[in-house]
Automatic annotation (TrEMBL):
It holds the Pfam family Succ_DH_flav_C. This is L-aspartate oxidase. The keyword Transmembrane does not apply. It comes from the Bacteria. Its EC number is 1.4.3.16. It catalyses: L-aspartate + O2 = iminosuccinate + H2O2. Belongs to the FAD-dependent oxidoreductase 2 family. NadB subfamily. Residues 462-487 form the Fumarate reductase/succinate dehydrogenase flavoprotein-like C-terminal domain. Pathway: Cofactor biosynthesis; NAD(+) biosynthesis; iminoaspartate from L-aspartate (oxidase route): step 1/1. Residues 13-378 form the FAD-dependent oxidoreductase 2 FAD-binding domain. GO terms for molecular function: L-aspartate oxidase activity.
Length: 519
């Protein structure tokens, strides 16, 4: 932060240092680019925590068409077929590109070692070090970024506000590690800020993932899409640790089964049983827990004695928590894991605001629909980063819209978010199963928190948009399950929402509640 921000004038700014951000910056080379990382490069990103791998049709008995069919089936009617087709077709080459950048994927006999995960009809998941794919990807890409002279990395720097003039991006306001502020004049910003796990009590994501990119985009006027679709991973390790440790779906892919305290495989009736789509497995576990049962993942027979060799990181996680996967079942429960919704983008990652792109979990490309197919997210980030970089590189690099008045952003607008109030509210109302009364109560609580510039405002604003979207979708579809609307509507349609629309709908909702007059 010692450099004057005008040194970076008109450079593209990439916000976020997970797979999406790192890959976008690398693909922009040799054009000079600024990469903002709120933590040391490679730390505190969901990518680094990813145990699963990248889904790509690399096997002789697999094709992109088969991969697409599985993706569409899992997405419960909301996958945008053409967008998904482009992404899954490009996924094999994206895996090879990552390998060329130094990612050491697991291999056997000179070929990628492919695993199986839920709702995939073929073995097509590429892993690294068994269950440490994300960590290996971040290691290799961070090293490549540091070795690329055209990329300026600003660590410990967090984006707090996008400057919009004449309806387009004109700059970005950041806060450094010592609280100092800087404004970078730029007409090109890429948000690669990850997900929303930090807004839930029980999540497998870093606590710092609080939907910052959604708040930035919404306040800049961007359209958001499918915010109601929040994926809960069925098998988080059920301990007191927060964030919760993840027991990858790949463990079930290798034969582990779900049982209760009696030893019964209570999901055996589901098509696919333990390897049914994630939303179905999560709901099955949720209901069984609500009936007073305990739920365990039993890996004693399969993978059995080979558990530590196949899943060294998960084995270490379990043993640190006091469990031996080879001799005892592992207590598990659902936890928030991924957000299918995000900033609405086109095929080049462009948002509805000129000069603003999004990539990775913060974006909604149409690939995931209502329910993400396992391991499609890392593949999506790697594929789309190249397309985003191509689009950014071909966009005008200078802007005359940025005026001196835009630099003066009130200090109150730059406070870090306090997610604690929102975390409690969303965990009650936007869990695995939702109901109207709970959503209305959440909106009533979140609306005053979202107003103004208090530290709780940005997290509450994101939570409010999620709750409004969930209330508006009066059906059950994929990861959005309404107990009061248990059926799916005949016609599936994506949802779109701006900040103004969300606030208006929230006010209408609160005004219609019985306690509104006396409140």
């Amino acid at each position: 932060m010692s450099d004057h921000p005008l040194l970076y004038r008109d450079r593209p700014v990439v916000v976020g240092a997970g797979l999406a951000g790192l890959m976008t910056a690398l693909c922009l080379a040799p054009e000079p680019v600024v990469l903002l990382s709120r933590a040391p490069l490679g730390a505190e990103t969901s990518t680094a925590w990813a145990q699963g791998g990248l889904a790509a049709s690399l096997a002789a008995d697999d094709t992109p068409a088969m991969h697409l069919a599985d993706t569409v089936e899992a997405g419960a009617g909301l996958v945008e077929a053409e967008a998904a087709r482009r992404i899954v077709t490009a996924a094999p080459e994206a895996v090879r590109r990552l390998a060329a950048l130094g990612v050491r994927f697991d291999e056997a006999d000179g070929a990628f070692l492919l695993g199986l995960e839920a709702a995939h009809g073929r073995r097509r998941i590429v892993h690294a070090d068994g269950d440490a794919t994300g960590r290996e990807i971040v290691r290799a890409l961070a090293a490549a970024v540091r070795a690329t002279p055209s990329i300026t990395v600003l660590e410990g720097v967090e984006a707090r506000r996008l400057i919009v003039e004449d309806g387009a991006i004109a700059g970005i306001v950041c806060v450094g590690p010592k609280g100092e502020t800087m404004t970078i004049p730029t007409a090109r910003v890429v948000l690669a800020t990850g997900g929303i796990g930090g807004l839930f009590c029980d999540s497998t994501n870093p606590r710092a993932s609080q939907g910052q990119g959604l708040a930035l985009a919404a306040r800049a006027g961007a359209m958001l899409s499918n915010l109601e679709f929040v994926q809960f991973h069925p098998t988080a390790l059920d301990t007191a640790a927060r964030p919760m440790g993840l027991v990858s779906e790949a463990v079930r892919g290798e034969g582990a089964v779900l049982v209760d305290e009696t030893g019964e495989r209570f999901l055996r009736h589901l098509p696919g049983a333990e390897l049914a789509p994630r939303d179905e497995v999560a709901r099955g576990i949720w209901r069984h827990l609500a009936e007073g049962h305990r739920v365990y993942l039993d890996a004693r027979q399969q993978p059995g004695a080979g558990f530590a060799r196949r899943f060294p990181g998960i084995d270490r996680l379990c043993r640190e928590a006091g469990f031996d996967p080879t001799s005892q079942p592992l207590p598990v429960r659902p936890a928030q894991h991924y957000h299918m919704g995000g900033i609405a983008v086109d095929g080049q990652g462009r948002s509805s605001v000129p000069g603003l792109w999004a990539c990775g979990e913060v974006a909604c490309t149409g690939l995931h629909g209502a329910n993400r197919l396992a391991s499609n997210s890392l593949a999506e980030a790697a594929v789309c980063a190249a397309w985003v970089a191509e689009s950014v590189g071909s966009a005008p690099g200078t802007s005359s819209r940025f005026g001196r008045a835009a630099i003066a952003v009130p200090a109150a607008d730059l406070r870090a978010g306090d997610p604690a109030p929102t975390r409690q509210i969303l965990s009650r109302a936007l869990g695995v199963i939702r109901v109207r009364a709970g959503l209305e109560a959440a909106i009533a609580e979140l609306l005053p928190l979202a107003a103004g510039t208090r530290p709780a405002s940005n997290p509450a604003l994101v939570g409010l948009m999620l709750a409004v979207s969930a209330l508006a979708r009066q059906e059950s579809r994929g990861a959005h399950w309404r107990a009061d609307f248990p059926s799916s509507l005949p016609m599936a349609a994506p949802s779109f929402l701006s900040l103004g629309q969300a606030l208006a709908l929230a006010r209408e909702t609160v005004a219609s509640l019985p306690f509104a007059e006396s409140a």
